[in-house]
Amino acid sequence: MTNDMTKGSPLKLIIQFMIPMCLGNIFQQFYNIADSIIAGQFLGVDALAAIGSTGSLIFLVTGWLNGLTSGFSVWVAQWFGAGKIDRMRHFIAMSVYICVGFVVVMTGGLLIANEPILRMMNAPENLMADISGYMAIIYAGLAVTCAYNALAAVLRALGDSKSPLYFLIISAILNVVLDIVFIVVFHMGVEGCGYATVIAQGISALLCLVYIIKKFPVLRLRKEDFRFSFLTIKKLLGLGIPMGLQFSITAIGTIIVQGAINVYGAVYMAGFSAAGKIQNIICTVFVAFGATIATYVGQNRGAGKMDRVKQGVRLTQVMILVCSVALMFVIHFFGKYMIFIFIDAGETEVLHAAEIYFDIVAWAYPFLGSIFLYRNALQGMGYGFVPMMGGVFELIARAAIVFIAAANAGFAEVCMSDPAAWIAALIPLIPYYLWVMRKAEKQPGMLA
């Protein structure tokens, strides 16, 4: 069912929406994490390094699609908040055309450029076959990845964060089962993990589609909704492209970092990968707060209730700071034990590399959480350019740190790129948010 976030307690609405989002993000992490765990335990450190090194590249590709579809869903949330259901359905129909076009072009292009991209990332020659085969399967399955992101984004735009969670739980469990079957039973190696991921994502997309058809009459598209409109396409791309680029620019920065880590060999690759995956799991609370505030702000912006927008952002900032302190505590005392999910206790060098990363980045979690808050708040109001520039600032900071670290040949220095990037991203975001809110107080705007 739909959830109108323009009425009621902002704190209660945000928490109720955020919790399923957080759980959903954790289960979504399981796609790549389950691959790494099972590969690391059954195939060894090299397999863990191979799959782990693809994280930044997968984020580049799927992040673009996620950003694009999230941008489209902002319009859905705003039209829903404004009560203009016909306009909402038309925008959804036009986004279908755009998604199909991007998936076709991206799948073909990335399959052709697969190996050259990996060589640019300094992928070790002894791992090249495994990494290339795994990524080819992921690229071939981009259609189902895009379908799930788009369908789940529409559901969330209407205030339903629980249904995507249920479908993710089902597909995450299926992913683990298929990983074990393909690797342990059929001995398919690293490529088996890729097939498991794509099949599981396809199931989650199919479940979303069936659910929408049966339970959301308001989302049943009609023939007239698909009448092509260049103006609507322009509006969708005007927000979707900057949001997609913001994810992609951030991913390029992580690819630069991964390329620097790859130089140190499989041990550091595995340690960096394992630590990064643990961090991604526990920091999904920040991602959830960001997605929640985007929907909350989008609906209230559409309804013209900017006072509720400001109140919701302020409350979310306090919750993010509290969560940041808790997460720093967890990483400090328990981080090294979490690494054993991926590796055997005897892999002391891998564990040491992961501990170095944790020691260097954990203090900066308040900055990381704030990025998701202000970036998504601005996007929820329909502003895409400055959030994208936050990604540019991240990229510059990461590249600068990697360049300095390359001269000193230090793994620890490369790890400093994350805190530097998080702080840099806030340089344009916070001042612009404050400026937008002051402007809104003086000149309340209408939907474009």
UniProtKB/TrEMBL annotation:
Transmembrane annotation, as ranges: 57-80, 92-113, 133-158, 165-188, 194-213, 236-258, 278-297, 318-343, 355-374, 386-407, 419-436
This protein's record includes keyword Nucleotide-binding: no
Pfam families cross-referenced by the UniProt entry: MatE (PF01554)
Listed PANTHER family: MULTIDRUG RESISTANCE PROTEIN YPNP-RELATED (PTHR43549)
Keyword set includes Cell membrane: yes
UniProt KW keywords: Cell membrane, Membrane, Transmembrane, Transmembrane helix, Transport
Protein name as it appears in the record: MATE family efflux transporter
